[in-house]
User: Fold this.
Amino acid sequence: MSRAATTSDVFNAVAEPRRREILTVLVGRERSVGELVELLGLEQPSVSKHLRVLREVELVKARREGKQMFYQTNADAIKPLHDWASHFQQYWRHNLSRLKARAEGLEAER
Assistant:
């Protein structure tokens, strides 16, 4: 079975770890391509390639100021990722509760 294009939807776009890293760095703050290059330790062409994919699926918004491009996350486009991941929240809550109970039980035994 062939793999879907990275620009076919947000899930394919974020399948690449570097793109997830870029989104994480952009949370809550607009950044220039130069800042992203510096923070991520990647080459500028690589960062630009990943930003193009993220922009095509609308996970990021771009703004030009002179010669510089600035990027920020697009919360509306990220919502489907959040909605899907939230299905697993109950699983993690349950496992963390079990882990907490076990740790408290071990502490009480000491």
